[in-house]
Amino acid sequence: MAVIQLEKITKSFKGTTLFENVNATFDAGKIYGIVGHNGSGKSVLFKLICGFIVPDSGTVTIDPTYMSKNRTFPENFGVIIDRPGYLPQKTGLDNLRDLARIRAVIGDDEIRTAMKSVGLAPDTKQAVRNYSLGMKQKLALTQAIMEEPQVLLLDEPFNALDVDSVELVRNLLASYRDKGRTVIFTSHNREDMDLLADHVFRIRANSLEQTA
Amino acid sequence: MTHRIVRSLNFAPWHVALLALSMVYGLYLRQQLQVISHELMVPLNMWDQILTFLLDPYYISYLFVPIWLYSSCVSIQRHFSVPALIRLGSYRSWLYRSTLHALARLIPLLLIWLVSATVTAAGLPLSIDWSATSTVGNPLNQVLGFVSNHGIPPLLVLALQLMLVGLTLLCLHMVLALVHLLSSKQVVIYAAAAALFFAQLISFRSRIEAAPFLDLANFFLLHRSFTAYDPVALVFLPVIAVIGLCVAGVQYQDRRHRSTPLRLPGSLSTLLYVGLCALGLIYALAFELRNEVGTPTDVLFVAFYGVSAEGFEWNLYLYHSIVFLGFAYLFLLVLENELKARIYYVALRHGSPTRWFSRFILPVAARVPLLLGALFAGALLIGLAGGPSADGNALADLRLGQGWVLYQFFINGTLQVLCYILVVFVIGWLNGRPMAGLFALGCLLVAGLPAVNSARVLPAALNSLGYVGLGGQELLRITAVLSVYCLALLLGALLIVKSPKLFFNERV
Ligand SMILES: Nc1ncnc2c1ncn2[C@@H]1O[C@H](COP(=O)(O)OP(=O)(O)O)[C@@H](O)[C@H]1O
Ligand SMILES: [Mg+2]
């Protein structure tokens, strides 16, 4: 069964239609890239998949492994949505601890390891408010990967990263695929798509076309 | 630059509505003046109408000031942005520019006021001096009677009044601008504006003679200035001093931070809150000592007296509101932070909106009894510091017959604060903006007044210890009322949180 299946999804905001009758299937063990110009609805697509936005019509089906009865949002998904995701007055580590405590499947050690794996120093006393753009992006990435999720939904994960970090994250995503996990990401960079994506979807004229 | 902004004084469509409203109000005032003049059988002249209008407390405090504060908030937020700051080069020039924008907003408002005052005076005899009516000093026309006795010609009174109001309003604008600069949070500037609004309302009602510079009405009404300052020109000093402080604050900001605004630490609001709570308890002790009955529970009683069925004293009600509505305001800040910053990530991990809601609200709810316990302990400690009561046994009264005080303080107190929190949550959520929660708090502040809530069915200030005098039966009824509200609000909150349309879609 597909990890995520979109059937006849239609969604518009106050008169502007973003998606019309969109169908798509995302399978396990693959990396999917989503491209589309600014405002085409990439972030909205991710929110639809997570259940943060409901479609006007159509269904989003998530593999029941990740969607037990009493859940509205999928389990074992790591996401980056176009939202900050941290309280600015706390340190990076404290922010991640707050989030990790909710599911309580990982402890401090895993958080630290995850931070290091994207090139963040776990023990800086800096509040996130004083982080650079790239550091905030790394924090968002850590948040998404720290609980070793089976599915990653990453909205523009490479934004603001330096060359070394881009390399690091690319390897990380590739290793996710090799472990049979699913990755969906958006990027405006051709190279990311060419190197990483097994399949590429393009949002054009309110629909999702598979281009590769 | 200056010229361009001031030249852009444009009249908006709502100015026409304001003009119409002002005209109607002016005609109403005129009618009243005519009744007075008829009764006293002395003639009016144009100054009676013009100055009565320009010195009218209702027009100023219920119409002019709120319009001004609101439009200031909107304008400040619109003009405060990184691109604008970069172009202006410093916070100081931003403040100047913002003040110029304010001036461009102010002039049409003052013109509307002046025009409606003058037009509604049409037909009255022209004169450069006071009329017979205004110098009589009759009880119905105290203001003019008072002002005309100061030997200042009416034209000068008009000029001074307009200058005073104009300068005060610009000063308030600068204060709000500074608040925004320091906090850069939407709710904080609106909270400051609301506080200023209520402060001037209170000040119009009752004077603070001990500290005339804290009495806002002195800076809006020339006849109030005359009583507070001698010579009257001194009234401009505090205003100018505050403007100076604002400029100094901004300059300090410029020196410390070249590029990013200094944000107050999030904990500062909490600190301020705790400080205010403690100050109130100490004030209550001082109040008690003056009455020579200071026992620890008396301090508790006075501090949390709030309102009673008979009426209210504004300082007691103010303190009550600071403590309990203030707690809801802190909650609002937390809620805003949570919604803005990380709701997606937190909710995803919880798995469902209801679970998110319960995990979010329960810790807050648990803090309510803790807050009350801390306030109780604080009141006792401060009360003990004031020495034992006359009968030498400080804690005796706690054991005897104070049961209902404790019941009202803890049980109804907990329910009341829970109600506040849930109202803020529901209103803020339905609206998609925490700002709306602030509006709800303002409504609750008014709803708590005994005149409004005489039947004690609105969930506001019902935990006032002033109500203990009504007897245990009534306190139990209050408990029932508050419980019903809490349950209904909780149900409402769960429903709206569950509704996917309302939860994230197009709102968060
Ligand atoms: N909650 C919302 N309410 C109204 N319009 C929205 C909302 N979320 C997104 N949009 C609109 O949908 C369009 C697509 O947004 P988005 O998915 O963020 O674009 P992008 O592809 O650049 O990520 C934009 O025009 C945006 O204004
Ligand atoms: Mg986007």
Short description:
Chain A is an alpha/beta fold.
Task: Outline the structure in words.
The complex is a heterodimer of chains A (212) and B (508). Chain A is an alpha/beta fold and 212 residues long. Chain A has six helices and nine strands; from the N terminus they run βββαββαααβαβαββ. Chain A folds into two domains: 1-76 and 151-212, Rossmann fold; 84-148, no CATH class. In chain A, the strands form two sheets. A six-stranded mixed beta sheet of chain A has the order 5-6-7-3-8-9. A three-stranded antiparallel beta sheet of chain A has the order 2-1-4, with no helix packed on it. In chain A, helix 2 packs across helix 3 and helix 3 (108-117) crosses helix 4 (133-145). The longest helix of chain A has 16 residues, at 163-178. Chain A is globular. Chain B is 73% helix and 1% strand. By secondary structure, chain B is an all-alpha fold. Chain B starts with a helix and ends in a 5-residue tail after the last helix. Chain B has two domains: 2-7 and 20-258, no CATH class; 269-503, no CATH class. The model of chain B is unreliable at 258-265 and 390-400 (pLDDT under 50). The chains are: A alpha/beta (212), B mainly alpha (508). Chains A and B meet through helix 2 of A and helix 15, helix 16 and helix 22 of B.
Question: What would CATH call the architecture of the largest domain in chain A?
Answer: 3-Layer(aba) Sandwich
Instruction: Give me the oligomer status.
Output: heterodimer
Secondary-structure-based class of chain B equals mainly alpha
- Can you give the mean pLDDT of chain B? 82
Largest sheet of chain A: 6 strands, mixed
Residue ranges of chain A: pLDDT <50 for 5 or more in a row? none
The figure for the number of domains of chain A is: 2
> How many whole angstroms does the radius of gyration of chain B measure?
26 Å
Distance between the first and last residues' Cα of chain A: 21 Å
